[in-house]
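[agent] plan:
  1. take the single chain provided in the ticket
  2. run structure prediction with default settings
  3. attach structure tokens to the ticket
  4. add a short note for the reviewer (M.T.)
[agent] executing step 1
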Amino acid sequence: MYKLYSYFTKDGSVGLFSPEDDDIYHSTYGAASEAYEKFIFPANIIDFLLTHDSIKILDICFGIGYNSKSFLNYFLNLKNEISKKNFANLTKILSPYNDKIYTNNILHDITNNYTIYSDNISEENLIKLNERLNNYKVYIKAIDTDKVLAYLSPFFVSDRTEPPKNYKLPFKNDKISKFLSNQKCKQNSKTGNSINSADSDISLKISESLIKYPVELNIILLDKIIRSNPDILENNDIAELISSKKYRQYFNGYICRLLDFYKSRECNYTPLRRIKAFLHNIYYNHLSKRYKRALNEPLYKNFDFDLKINDARSELLEDNNKYNFVFLDAFTPAKCPCLWTVDFFRLIFDHLEADGMILTYSNSAAIRNAFIEAGFCIGKIFNPVENKFTGTIAVKNKTLIKHELSEYDLGLLKTKSGITYRDENLNGQNEAIIARHTEEVNSSTLISSSKYIKQHKSKI
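[agent] step 2 finished; step 3 output follows
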């Protein structure tokens, strides 16, 4: 059976540990929180919704779907509050963090705060937005190579804001146990950086309505996955995992039962299965309000979800779409360099709209240089929780950048650490890409990053 190493993060969402990489997929302070901080809030989504009638998102390294699900939940929260004309309550959605500084202010007083990432928030604009959201078209293409993890995305529990009481890991691992027990450590597996925080619970918490994904959202996602990937109904790993007592605490029982309903609809009808299917149809079509609400949600009708289990390079070579937003959430170049090369970024460039945006957690000089060489203008993502820049934005339209690179950042690009990864044929193996990069770094006459940093500090 597929081995799943799951745990609850501090905001109640489920994180994963990878034994192959000996590292975690998600920050222990919150898998859902991390998605909002690094991809959703910096994307300036509300400005985009005000000026477009549809949105196309490319989610590279989908994993268990936090980036896509967080966008959908943000969209649903925004739509529901606007439709109710609860403009004052919108501060909890438009302002990323539910803190007294923001929630005690009225809507127009917070429009200039950088944490909202918007200059166009007003009651008039929100009323206009309300008129179009019910018919707003959403398309997400999600790509990952791990079929089981991607198929599991709708099943994980999503209604918590903290781990269950007396929670214990279902497996033994000293590294993940240390992460979870360290109250002052926030760890991101992809960056590999540990960040000390004076407040273990994160003083600026994201609104609970965003952290808690509604069951209806997972119903919609499951339905869309089944339609594009019907083999999920016959996947033995999925069936064994969601029925295992070992993992029961991590999965939503309702969504697990819903999969059985879909299976009963698709099965070859023996007399016993016909009875089972009949009972399932009675329950879900006549008794389940959640199921009916999900299928009546305008998002269900206007949302296309295309999950591809494939190498992102191969998938994009066959893709004719242009996207408004790209969430690039691959592991670091040390583990997955094939998705960080100049050549792959050029491929994404061809798939990005003129006003499109790529968002990634990486601050790497090599990655930023690769974006520039591929034709992008780049900027930085600011995280108010950590009070530091924690990611990179790549765009074609420079006016979309709010935080430009500093002189120090630009100087770092000219060091050995700014030497890019290359994969001209877009089919290279990770080991070969790393070996080539290592050789180029070793033979380079550029100044080392450590020497550059030392020189920079001496001038301060």
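[agent] step 4 note for reviewer: Confidence is low (pLDDT under 50) at residues 98-119, 183-189, 191-204.
[agent] ticket updated
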